[in-house]
């Protein structure tokens, strides 16, 4: 099993804080602009969680969980 050192080696999906800084306050859409982030540029292991939606409680270290509000604006980004 390889040794993974946070901040030294990058794992699939990148650091959750990196994604938080890229996504917070933006909407997810088909292309990039000042207020939109392209869905096609998200890591393969991601899920968008809408208010009042159900999601599994399984932990996947490489997955990015993107919480959005009713209008689709990103409010929280959690890795796992």
Automatic annotation (TrEMBL):
Gene3D superfamilies assigned: Trypsin Inhibitor V, subunit A (3.30.10.10)
Domain of life: Eukaryota
InterPro entries with a match to the protein in the record: Prot_inh_I78 (IPR021719)
Protein name: Uncharacterized protein
